[in-house]
Every structure is written in C-alpha cells, then in structure tokens.
Amino acid sequence: MHQAVIATVDIVFLTIHNGRLGVALSKRDKEPFQGGDALPGGYIHAQEDRDCLDAAVRILHEKTGILPPYLEQLQTFAGAARDPRGWSVSVAYFALVHYRVIESAHHPDVAIFPVDALRRLPFDHNDIIATAVDRIRNKAQYSSLPCHLAGETFTLPKLQKVYEACLGEALNKVSFRRKMQELAVLEAVPGQMETEGAHRPAQLYRLKAEFKNGLKSLARGL
Amino acid sequence: MHQAVIATVDIVFLTIHNGRLGVALSKRDKEPFQGGDALPGGYIHAQEDRDCLDAAVRILHEKTGILPPYLEQLQTFAGAARDPRGWSVSVAYFALVHYRVIESAHHPDVAIFPVDALRRLPFDHNDIIATAVDRIRNKAQYSSLPCHLAGETFTLPKLQKVYEACLGEALNKVSFRRKMQELAVLEAVPGQMETEGAHRPAQLYRLKAEFKNGLKSLARGL
C-alpha cells in the first residue's frame, strides 16, 4: 500500500464588508497553527461525506454555523510541502454570502479580513485566497456570480457597488444596467422600494429562484 | 485516525484525429476494470511526487510514453461511489498534443477515441471527459489553448480547422485571423512555406516560445 495522503477540504468564504471584498477566517482549534486565523477546513470523513461538496458544506457549517447557498469548486492544492502533517490534497471551494449572514451567525471564532491586506496565513492559504479572488474578479466580468454577495434583496445601485468591489474598479451605470438586463437573472420584488437619504425611492430586486444556487454567464463581458 | 481516502490523478489527454476532437485512453493493466480502456491515471506517490502536477506528468509518461508540453488542472472528482476500492479523490488534469506525438510514441496500450462517440467507460471517466471537453470548447472561444493541438508548426487554415474541431462549428476566416492577430501568440517561421494541393504556398507559423507551456486570453471571444 502507498504512504497515506491526507485528504482535506478548505473553503474560501467571501463577503463584502465596508465596501471591500473580505474573507471569513476561523481560529484554528488544534495544531498545527493552533490559534491562528485560517480558512475553514478539515478532513474528508469517508464514513459521513458522500462527496467533496458534501464535505465542504459540513465543514463550513461546523466552523462557521452557516449553510451557504452558493459553493463552487475552486481548485485543488496538493503536495508534500503545504501541510506539516504530510503529503496533503486540499480540494478548495469558495462560498459567497451577504455580510449580514456571517454577522447574524455570531460565531466567536470567525472574523472577516479584507482580501487585499492579509497577513501571512497558515499552510498555503494566502495562495488559495488569491486564486479565489482571481476567479471572482474574472467571473464578475461576465456572470451573475457577485449577486450572491448582495443579500436577499438589493437595489441596482447597491448591486453595482458589489460588482465594483469584486472588480476593484468603478463601472458605468448605464452599461451596468444594460448588462444586468441582458443577464436576466433578477426580478423586481413586487411593491418593495427602498428609500435612502435624499435619493428618490429605488426598486428592490432579488435573484430569480432558478439562479439562487447557480450562475449565469454572458457571451460578452461587462 | 480517519478512514483512508484514495488519492489519484487522472489525465484527459486530447488530440485532433481525422478532424475530430479525440481522447487517448489507455488499457488498464489491473483490477478494477482490468483490460478496459480508461483515462491514464494512478495513485499519487507521496515519496516520489512533489505535488499533483508532478504526479500527473509522471503518470501520463508511464502510461503513454509522452511528456506533454501543456497540462492544466481540470477539476477534482471525489466521493464514496466513483471507485469500487473506496472513497476516492481524483485530481483531473487535461493535456493537449498533436496527433503525431501520440502516434510516434507507438504505445501498444494507447488508442484514440472521438470524444462525441464514447462508450460507457470505467469509474466516472465519461463525466471527467465531458468536463474537459466543455472546458476546451469554452476556452477555444477566447484563448490560445487550441494551438497546443496544432503541432510544432502549422498554416493558419490548419489552425482554423483545429479551432473549429474544438468548437464544433465553422468560423469565419477573416474574423478568425483578426482574433489570432489580436492574441499575438504566433510567429511566422522564417522562410517556411507549405504547399498543399492546388493552393498557393501558405506561411507556416508556430507558438512564440513564451506561450509554449502557457495560455493567453482575449478580453472578448471569437
């Protein structure tokens, strides 16, 4: 038999906080790196998990108290050097939620850090986060992915800010609205308007039910 | 300690044969599915492989005799049901080469099958191949990926046929050439022309050295 390989799952759990893309890290409760902030992660439980996505959902729930509506496989990070316990395979996923979902879970060991100002994290977690941020920046160009960061209902100006936080650049309002129309993933919430400050009331939108756990892409980007 | 998880690598090894996208399968020399055609694959060797890509290169070379210039991680397929030996994680890669490279390796256990007419393969290999074909179709829209299928040198009409085989549709010659110019990954081979049939001699091109192991993408697709 071959020398055993450690099989784990790590989740890059992203949200928008204070207008910036942030990652939820969880304090490690055991060695290695005990007490350090790291990606929520853990061993695959062969007796319990049917597949990898199953393991990711279980682990994220254990470590943060949250069942995220949108999880996507990111990439697998594997090798002899990334984990002091031995040769390891980490199947990385990313999840996206509105900040209020993390806040209302009140998990004492979870904190949010801006992705563009992270200190050195355990294992290769900085690389895994950088890969997730690249993926999201890329998909924000042409898909509905960032909508999962915008909460249950949102105005179009708020959604635009979410896209801008993902892309790291300002977008033109007119072309943003045209692209959203073209994507056709949103529906107006009947009779719901939001009034904020001196602005006139703005229509609230939500993802259509069929896109709540999914994604839609445009042939041409923003 | 947790129940051990099997850690393997499988490679979807693609080429163009008779104008169609094909996958190189390798006859399995042991159980399960001994004698069946399947993706070249094998266990990660923790003592030998530094990382997953290393394992993929080693395994593909052992099973086909070929060291491919372009390998990319595809996705990880994992779960309790996909391998009769137990809970398994397969990190899948895809590789692209010109048909002549496979032909000249003369490996007795390797054969090429068109991807759109595959019978039922061992494990979840049909799913893995379908995922690879989707990825290539998608990337052929906006990147230099298919160039790795075109051989060391090629004329533009031949490269267009490679793109068309990947995309499964005919392309407009003028816009194809404009997109290739925009990608700027090709260089003319000095003094080399190809004469074929009644056509006038056509310039031969090759990938610029810096793109031989890589990829370049356009902001907007073909």
Automatic annotation (TrEMBL), chains A, B:
InterPro entries: NUDIX_hydrolase-like_dom_sf, NUDIX_hydrolase_dom, WH-like_DNA-bd_sf, WH_DNA-bd_sf, WHD_NrtR. It comes from the Bacteria. Residues 147-207 form the NrtR DNA-binding winged helix domain. CDD domains: NUDIX_NadM_like. Pfam families: NUDIX (PF00293), WHD_NrtR (PF21906). GO terms for molecular function: hydrolase activity. Residues 11-125 form the Nudix hydrolase domain. The keyword Manganese does not apply. Keywords: Hydrolase. The keyword RNA-binding does not apply. This is NUDIX domain-containing protein. It comes from Methylovulum psychrotolerans.
